[in-house]
C-alpha cells in the first residue's frame, strides 16, 4: 500500500468483476495524467444477485475502503447498485460517489425507429427500480430488455480472450436471434460493464446497429474531479474460491495489460 502515498487525488473505479477496468482505461485515454485506483470486488461477484441490504453493505464498504486509500472520487461502474442503492448511501459516504446507469436515454435519443434493445442481466431487468427507471425515460419509444447473462459470463470467465472465435460465433448467434425477434430496433444499449469489453464483436455481428455504452456519460461526470498526477494506475482485488485472484491476473496478462493486482481482504 506504500505506493498509494505517491498518488495525486486518485479517482477510484470498481465493480464486482473485470468490467470496471474498461472505465479505468477510458479515464486513462481521456485524462492521461490522472492517477487511478482500480478495484475488482470479486469476492462479492455478482452484485446483481445480492439483496438490497447486502448490496448497501458491500458497496458502502468498498467506497469507504477506497476513500481510506486516498480516492478523491469513487465511481461505481456496476448498473445494479448504481440504480438501487447509490442514491441512498452517497450522502453517508466520506467521498463523492458517481454511479453508472444504463445509457437508455441516449439510446432513445439516437434511435431513428423509436425502438431500442437494452442488453443486461435478467435479475437487473426484474428490479422494480430498474423498471421504473426505464419507464421514466423511454417516452414513446419501445425499450426491449434482453437477457445477455451468458455473454457477461463469457467475459468474466475470460472465454472472450482464450476462445475468441467461439465468442465471435456466440455473439453473432445471439444478435441474429435478437434481430429476428426485434427487427425494427436500430440501437443497442449496454447495461453491463462486462459487455463493453466485447463491443467490437457486437459491432461486427450487427454492423447496421449502433451500440451505446455508459462510459462516455460517466466521463462527463468525472471530469470536474480530475487532476494532474503521474498517470499511475494501482490495481487491487478481493477473491473467492470460485473467483481466485490468479484468474483475473491471467486475463489481464492475456489482454496485454501490464498491471499487477494486489489482493486485499474481502469486504
UniProtKB/TrEMBL annotation:
InterPro entries: Asp/Glu/hydantoin_racemase, Asp/Glu_race. Pfam families: Asp_Glu_race. It comes from the Bacteria. GO terms for molecular function: racemase and epimerase activity, acting on amino acids and derivatives. This is Putative Asp/Glu racemase. It comes from Taylorella equigenitalis 14/56.
Amino acid at each position: 500500500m506504500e505506493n498509494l502515498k505517491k498518488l495525486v487525488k486518485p479517482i477510484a473505479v470498481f465493480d464486482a468483476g473485470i468490467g470496471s477496468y474498461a472505465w479505468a482505461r477510458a479515464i486513462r485515454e481521456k485524462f492521461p495524467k490522472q492517477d487511478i485506483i482500480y478495484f475488482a470486488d470479486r469476492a462479492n461477484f455478482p452484485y446483481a444477485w445480492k439483496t438490497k441490504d447486502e448490496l448497501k453493505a458491500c458497496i458502502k464498504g468498498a467506497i469507504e475502503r477506497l476513500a481510506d486509500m486516498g480516492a478523491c472520487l469513487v465511481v461505481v461502474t456496476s448498473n445494479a447498485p448504481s440504480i438501487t442503492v447509490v442514491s441512498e448511501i452517497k450522502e453517508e459516504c466520506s467521498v463523492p460517489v458517481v454511479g453508472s446507469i444504463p445509457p437508455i436515454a441516449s439510446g432513445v435519443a439516437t434511435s431513428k425507429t423509436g425502438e431500442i434493445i437494452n442488453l443486461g442481466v435478467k435479475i437487473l431487468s426484474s428490479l422494480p427500480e430498474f423498471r421504473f427507471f426505464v419507464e421514466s425515460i423511454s417516452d414513446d419509444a419501445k425499450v426491449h430488455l434482453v437477457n445477455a447473462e451468458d455473454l457477461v459470463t463469457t467475459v468474466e470467465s475470460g472465454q472472450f480472450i482464450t476462445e475468441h472465435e467461439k465468442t465471435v460465433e456466440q455473439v453473432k448467434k445471439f444478435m441474429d436471434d435478437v434481430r429476428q425477434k426485434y427487427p425494427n430496433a436500430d440501437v443497442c444499449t449496454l447495461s453491463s460493464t462486462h459487455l463493453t469489453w466485447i463491443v467490437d464483436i457486437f459491432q461486427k455481428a450487427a454492423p447496421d446497429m449502433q451500440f451505446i455504452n455508459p462510459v462516455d456519460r460517466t466521463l462527463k461526470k468525472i471530469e470536474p474531479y480530475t487532476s494532474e498526477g503521474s498517470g499511475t494506475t494501482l490495481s487491487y482485488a478481493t477473491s473467492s474460491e470460485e473467483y481466485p485472484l490468479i484468474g483475473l491476473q491471467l486475463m489481464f496478462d492475456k489482454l496485454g495489460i501490464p498491471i499487477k493486482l494486489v489482493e486485499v481482504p474481502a469486504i
